[in-house]
Each structure stands twice: as C-alpha cells, then as structure tokens.
Specification:
This protein has two helices and five strands. With about 70 residues, it is of the alpha+beta class. Strand 3 and strand 4 (about 50) form a beta hairpin.
C-alpha cells in the first residue's frame, strides 16, 4: 500500500535517531533513513508515521545480504 503523506510534512520529518532525512518505501509502507550508518525503517500505519526507535526495523543487514 503506497504511503500517503503530505509532501510538506515529509519535508520536515527526520530520523529520531540520527536526524537524517527519509526516503519513502511505498512497497513496505515505511520511511527509511537515508543515512547509511543508521538506515532504520519506520513503519507508516494508516498514513501515520510511527517514529519510535523501538518500532523501527534495521535495514543494514537486509541490504548486505541482498548484495
């Protein structure tokens, strides 16, 4: 399900862990941190981003195994 967030909201949201910008992953309904050393993916549920570090998913291991 595609992420349906206001572009203005998306432009001010940052990763709570490292303060980097997000990229949208529509396929996974997540906001993914653009900082490669952080790279946490935060879920978007009912068009509401859940920006809690405890709710985030690590993507670094997943990307390494794909290559």
């Amino acid at each position: 399900m595609p992420v349906n967030l206001d572009p203005d909201l998306l432009s001010i949201l940052v990763c709570p862990k490292c303060r980097s910008e997000f990229r949208v992953d529509d396929e996974a309904s997540e906001l993914v941190c653009t900082n490669p050393t952080c790279a946490l993916a935060y879920p978007v549920r009912d068009d509401i981003p859940v920006l809690l570090i405890d709710e985030a998913r690590e993507t670094k291991d997943a990307e390494a195994s794909e290559n």
